[in-house]
Amino acid sequence: MIEARGLTKVYGMPRDGAVSALRGAGERRRNAVREAGGFLAVDDVGFSVSAGEIFVIMGLSGSGKSTVLRMLNRLVEPTMGSLLVDGADLAALPQDELRQLRNRKINMVFQHFALLPHRRVRENAAYGLKVRQAPAKQRMERADWALRRVGLEQWADSYPHELSGGMKQRVGLARALATDAEILLMDEPFSALDPLIRRDMQELLLQLQSEDRRTIVFVTHDLNEAMRIGERIMVMRDGRVAQCATANEIISAPADDYVTEFVADVDRSRVLTAGNVLRPPLVTARCGESPVEVLKRLENVEMNGIFVLDETGRVVGVATDKALAGALRDGGTTVESCLGGDYHAVPADAPIVEFCDLAGRHTVPIAVVDADRRLLGVAPRAAILAALAVPKKVRHA
Ligand SMILES: Nc1ncnc2c1ncn2[C@@H]1O[C@H](COP(=O)(O)OP(=O)(O)OP(=O)(O)O)[C@@H](O)[C@H]1O
Ligand SMILES: [Mg+2]
């Protein structure tokens, strides 16, 4: 849906001068721009966003997030680079088509929604449609529909000053929803809200997004917010891309020391999953095997229990060393006679927070299984603890 290549923005100097200053590479570019009196705010940024995706741009203040976002609808003109939106080359669009695109396809949501104080909530929600000159009746119906979706239908006739900050923000969201823009550009839309309301808004956004998927580019400097809502996250540093990946990839394989330090405070147990701590089981048993064979196998690895699998690899239960020894005494012939259910199974995408308390409770590690309950591997307690341990902070010069 959106494809950006080599996006670059120099502030404070004419474009031609900027382009010639940008001829160098790396730090040389930045210095040349500075010496020429400009400021390199965004430097060679490329990414693509698929239809229906929530793509998050994250970084410290001044890293260039808003500049990138504004280049996506040419509120800021890129100094260099190319930008395709739904196949159309944005730079080549004449003014009237650009206006069309901004009116119909792309909607921008700001941190302060700039509600019109003397208009009722309904008219505020309909504002984006008014700009597009939709008929009045249709506008109001659409606004009511959007207000219902954000849970504000009973406030439609109120004025903005009668609403709390969170409610105002929801009106802003309703305004964006009321339009049928396929692309929503959101610049820190929740950062003025207090933490609880902010979480509600994140939930609401995710819920709305699951109902009708739009393409959302979302700017935030809050890492936990980025990890909660972003399918992919682009971490920016000084106008460049430090890493662009899923939350899970960023946490489990940070691109460099900067990203490592940046993500050190995130709640890893909510982002990392069973799949991240999956190991092949040291031993397993098959249905039909004799207790004596299985007990020997356990002895060799000094474990107290073993997963018993059927011929398709499905977990049928756990045999403990005790139960196996008992079966030996009582003359049991197969491992099935000593099966128990003392284990916990999770899917590979289960966040660690959902099962870490249970690690070490059973004689066997947590089982990681597929939808048919086939054993994919185990999540040993030590692997879970190692994954959750925050890497030592790296010092930055
Ligand atoms: N119109 C402008 N003229 C000159 N410099 C600008 C302009 N807009 C932004 N900048 C500079 O470009 C850099 C990137 O700004 P930008 O607003 O994109 O950052 P940001 O990541 O959105 O920061 P924040 O989190 O504070 O909103 C900053 O150093 C800023 O001072
Ligand atoms: Mg900004």
TrEMBL record:
Q: Which domain of life is it from?
A: Bacteria
The family database entries (Pfam families) matched by this protein are listed as: ABC_tran (PF00005), CBS (PF00571)
Q: In what residue span(s) does the CBS domain sit?
A: 278-334
The chain positions of domain ABC transporter read 27-263
Listed under GO biological process in this entry are:
amino acid transport; glycine betaine transport; response to osmotic stress
Q: Which GO terms describe its molecular function?
A: ATP binding; ATP hydrolysis activity
Q: Which InterPro entries match?
A: AAA+_ATPase (IPR003593), ABC_osmolyte_uptake_ATP-bind (IPR051921), ABC_transporter-like_ATP-bd (IPR003439), ABC_transporter-like_CS (IPR017871), CBS_dom (IPR000644), CBS_dom_sf (IPR046342), Gly-betaine_transp_ATP-bd (IPR005892), P-loop_NTPase (IPR027417)
- According to the UniProt entry, the coiled-coil residues are none
Signal sequence region: none
State the SMART domains in the record: AAA
Keywords, in A-Z order: Amino-acid transport, ATP-binding, CBS domain, Nucleotide-binding, Transport
What Gene Ontology cellular-component terms does the record carry? membrane
Family indicated by similarity: Belongs to the ABC transporter superfamily.
Q: Supply the PANTHER family for this chain.
A: GLYCINE BETAINE/PROLINE BETAINE TRANSPORT SYSTEM ATP-BINDING PROTEIN PROV, GLYCINE BETAINE_PROLINE BETAINE TRANSPORT SYSTEM ATP-BINDING PROTEIN PROV
Q: Which NCBIfam families match?
A: proV
The protein in question is named Betaine/proline/choline family ABC transporter ATP-binding protein
